[in-house]
Design brief:
The protein is of the alpha/beta class. The protein has ten helices and ten strands. The protein has a single domain, classed as NADP-dependent oxidoreductase domain (TIM Barrel, Alpha-Beta Barrel). 37% of the residues lie in helices and 14% in strands. It binds NADPH dihydro-nicotinamide-adenine-dinucleotide phosphate.
Length: 340
């Protein structure tokens, strides 16, 4: 755009066909339907990211039926800035669509200084939801997560604080994240007693990290809870982008991320084999990685990240091919069961 460009900033009008192709799955036995693919704002929405790009990703997502946006108090960097940016973009684009959106935030990881800026105390959770709502310009979130378990706080204190947040109208539903199966079972009991609408667990799950298949997925099915799988592309490793080296601007090449180039190099032999399997199925590796998760029993939604609208559009094609032959599943198993 030139400095003398006379075209107006276009007011966003959502695509009227946005609900035509997305599939929606029920979260456990709750009333909530979530899109098969949801969008996370952990990366690419912080203070140092290009806001025009963040806006294009969000608009593209909603235009394709992605109704669920996932945030946390400390997404950025710096902490809080993804919520601030989301709040600005929400005001400019999505305010009139509020009732079509399902917005999540979380508290429980490191956020502010001192003894109350972290973990699972009533003090931390209630202060954090209030901060998040202000940053995002929202009256309520659709789901509020306890981001990680906290062995230092009695689970009952955490559960009652979350219950009160619902009663105060600050969140409609509650979720937990990174909990072990025994912790999920225990907090489910507490939430039942407190009549809290606890609907979902957010857990790391991809072909390169299958640990939740052992105990967590069976526990969620038994307790009739949904599961939303985060980092489904193993932060971008389950794409073809790293096959010929680490590209500039990729997550592994950047500072301030949790993806180390050594991890990419270590996983490369398996990534290459999975990439060949995807080609045989007529998919790209990132599409196969998402399709494979979508056909796993108990998965409500796959929570992707994207650094561009084009990536997002390409990932959405995964919904078109979720059928795997026994042979294909066996081949994927033989390459990835080491990550169980
Ligand atoms: P993914 O595994 O989907 O990784 C996303 C990254 O992969 C993108 O940012 C991009 O990185 C790359 N990528 C995506 N699509 C493509 C494509 N088509 N082609 C090439 N590269 C692609 O998910 P995230 O790790 O980002 O996690 C997703 C969400 O899960 C987060 O935003 C957050 O909401 C949630 N989360 C929750 C956690 C929790 O503790 N509860 C922890 C972590 C995440 P690049 O920059 O290289 O282009």
């Amino acid at each position: 755009m030139k400095i003398n460009d006379k075209s107006q900033y276009k007011t966003y009008l959502a695509n009227e066909n946005r609900y035509n192709n997305m599939l929606y799955n029920r979260s456990g036995d709750s009333g909530v339907l979530l899109p098969s693919i949801s969008l996370g704002l952990w990366h690419n929405f912080g203070k140092y990211d290009l806001q025009a790009n963040s806006e294009e990703i969000l608009r593209t997502a909603f235009d394709h039926g992605i109704t669920h946006f996932d945030l946390a108090n400390n997404y950025g960097p710096p902490y809080g800035s993804a919520e601030v940016n989301f709040g600005v973009l929400y005001e400019q684009n999505f305010k009139s669509y509020r009732d079509e959106l399902f917005i999540a935030t979380k508290a429980g990881y490191d956020m502010w200084q001192g003894p109350y800026g972290n973990y699972g105390s009533r003090k931390h959770l209630i202060a954090s939801i209030d901060q998040s709502l202000k940053r995002m310009n929202l009256e309520y979130v659709d789901v509020f997560y306890h981001h990680r378990p906290d062995v230092g706080t009695p689970l009952e204190e955490t559960a009652v604080a979350l219950s009160d947040i619902v009663r105060q109208g600050k969140a409609l539903y509650i979720g937990v994240s990174n909990y072990e199966s025994d912790q999920i079972t225990e907090i489910t009991k507490l939430f039942k007693e407190l009549k809290v609408p606890f609907i979902i667990d957010q857990a790391r799950y991809s072909m390169l990290d299958r640990k939740i298949e052992k105990e967590i997925l069976p526990c969620l099915l038994e307790n009739k809870l949904g599961c939303i799988a985060f980092s489904p592309l193993a932060q971008g490793m389950l794409t073809d982008k790293y096959i010929d080296g680490i590209p500039e601007n990729s997550r592994a090449a950047k500072n301030k991320t949790y993806l180390e180039s050594e991890t990419v190099e270590e996983k490369l032999p398996i990534i290459k084999k999975l990439n060949n399997l995807a080609k045989e199925r007529g998919q790209k590796l990132h599409q196969m990685a998402i399709s494979w998760l979508l056909q796993q029993k108990g998965i409500t939604s796959v929570l992707i990240g994207a650094s561009s609208a084009d990536q997002l559009i390409d990932n959405l094609k995964a919904i078109e091919n979720n059928n795997f032959s026994e042979i294909e599943l066996h081949q994927i198993d033989s390459l990835t069961k080491q990550f169980l």
